[in-house]
Amino acid sequence: MNGAQALLRTLVASGVDVCFMNPGTSEMQFVAALDSTPQLRPVLALFEGVATGAADGFGRMADRPAATLLHLGPGLGNGIANLHNARRGRSPIVNIVGDHATYHKALDAPLESDIESLARPVSGWYRWTARPDDVAAHAAAAVAAALGAPGCVATLVLPADVSWLDANEESLPPEARRRPVVAGAIAPKAVRNRPDDEKMKAVAAALESGEPAALLLGGSSLRATGITAASRICERSGAKLLAEPFPARLERGAGLPSVERLAYFGELAQAQMGPLRHLVLVDAKRPVSAFAYPGKASDLVPAGCEVHVLAGADEDAVEALEALAERIGADSQAPKFHAQRRPDRPTGALTPAALGQAIGALLPEAAIISDESITGGIFVPDATAGAPRHDLLSLTGNSIGQGLPLAAGAAVACPDRPVLALEADGSAMYTIQALWTQAREGLDVTTVVLDNSSYGILNIELGRVGADAGGPIARSMLELGRPSLDFVAISDGLGVPAVRAETAGELAAALERAFAEDGPHLVHAIMV
């Protein structure tokens, strides 16, 4: 047994049975070991950002880590943007990065780099392994770190010689010595701290004061149990129920309480919170503007509003909400559930409103939406609020290029659930290679590319940052024409069947066909 085989056996025994990878020479021992460890499913990506984004989507939906396999520092660098999103979403990922052999590093070969400096900003745990006999222990520690509350990217760097040299069988953790190793045999759950009683007393007093208040939910509190408990509290106290603007995973739809997400633009978020005198954070961060703007606030909490923390990221937010409901007498209060309601199937021009209508009318039961629609999807949340129950995955770290890989990872994690990727045209080109992985793996992902032939959000931001309205050269930097992107041709070339939709009716028909058939599909939606 060499170091790479010890790594794979330990990963599988620790509950990690999927690896999204783009390997190179330093990782060939890992690749060779796949045949002796068939319990680990390898998923090939054509770009490292696809591998890291897919691992993020898997972690959000499976509540356990997938692994990645990246080639040295440059490969890690290619995947960092989506590791940044994963860090902001607190996704559990075991991020394995190959390195030059220990004796080769001093020679400064062309691919030599400072891997630690690249990895640290996106990693909650980091280790460089120097001996084959340490591989198994370090791998087990990486899994434990990734799963530790609130979840993190755990980066393990493995030099090539540590992979190919022999490792002592006794170095394996006991569960990895069993033969055969069973995929997912041990899948520990994140253990969160119990909520603090003093904080709960302060929150209860604030809610019972009669002053305007709101609960702001984030992270682990945005599942059905947490939202339901929060709705009971708000119905009892009169508090407003809010969610962070970019939730990692939000359970929503008919039969669940409706949660109002804070707006992306600071002025709108301030209007949502304007009259508040108490803001209660539940596994959520203090609201701030995504960017600084001349003459506009960066801290969005209203003046005179006291901020309370009911549960931090490492605390059990659901337990805190249920205990708070009991404390204020809301445990028997009926929550406010959203009724089942679908919009009519749209006709006419393919506008953002029509897009929302089509998705709301046709969204399948138990769907997963990977939303990177940016400006084009503005009407989707309202149109799908009464659709069958579904999960929404959003752009947690605001680094675009997440949507298509995230959808792929979610589909691997939940093969029995349909996945809908809503993707802006500009963002799609960052990680378009994810379509090839979807085709290769036969993933049930329907992608809708929203084509307005521009970086629409940047056209808005040009004015918001106080820049000049922009002359023809400036405006040309925000346009995606000359030539126009042909997503049907691109998708077909990557193995995913695609159609073009220029009207609302054509979009609805294309969605209906795609949802009815297994495997990946793409709809190139020409927006007006």
- The CATH level-2 architecture of the largest domain is identified as 3-Layer(aba) Sandwich
- N→C terminal distance: 60 Å
CATH superfamily of the largest domain: Thiamin diphosphate (ThDP)-binding fold, Pyr/PP domains
Helix count equals 21
Number of strands: 18
Radius of gyration over C-alpha positions, nearest whole angstrom: 24 Å
Helix content: 25-40%
Largest sheet: 7 strands, mixed
* CATH third-tier fold name of the largest domain: Rossmann fold
Task: Point out poorly predicted stretches.
Answer: 183-187
Classify the secondary structure makeup into a structural class: alpha/beta
Strand content: 15-25%
Name of the top-level CATH class of the largest domain: Alpha Beta
Q: Let me know the average pLDDT.
A: 94
Strand arrangement within the widest β-sheet reads: 9-14-13-15-16-18-17
Principal-axes geometry comes out as: globular
List the helices and strands and how they pair.
Elements: H1 3-13, E1 18-22, H2 28-33, E2 41-44, H3 48-62, E3 66-70, H4 72-89, E4 93-99, H5 115-119, E5 125-128, H6 135-147, E6 153-159, H7 160-164, H8 174-177, H9 197-207, E7 213-217, H10 224-237, E8 240-243, E9 250-252, E10 260-261, H11 266-273, E11 278-282, E12 306-311, H12 317-327, H13 352-362, E13 368-372, H14 380-384, E14 390-393, H15 403-413, E15 419-424, H16 425-428, H17 434-441, E16 445-451, H18 456-464, H19 472-476, H20 487-493, E17 498-501, H21 504-516, E18 521-526
Parallel strand pairs: 1-2, 1-3, 3-4, 4-6, 5-6, 7-8, 7-11, 8-10, 11-12, 13-14, 13-15, 15-16, 16-18, 17-18
Antiparallel strand pairs: 9-14
Helix pairs in contact: 1-6, 3-4, 3-15, 9-12, 10-12, 13-21, 15-17
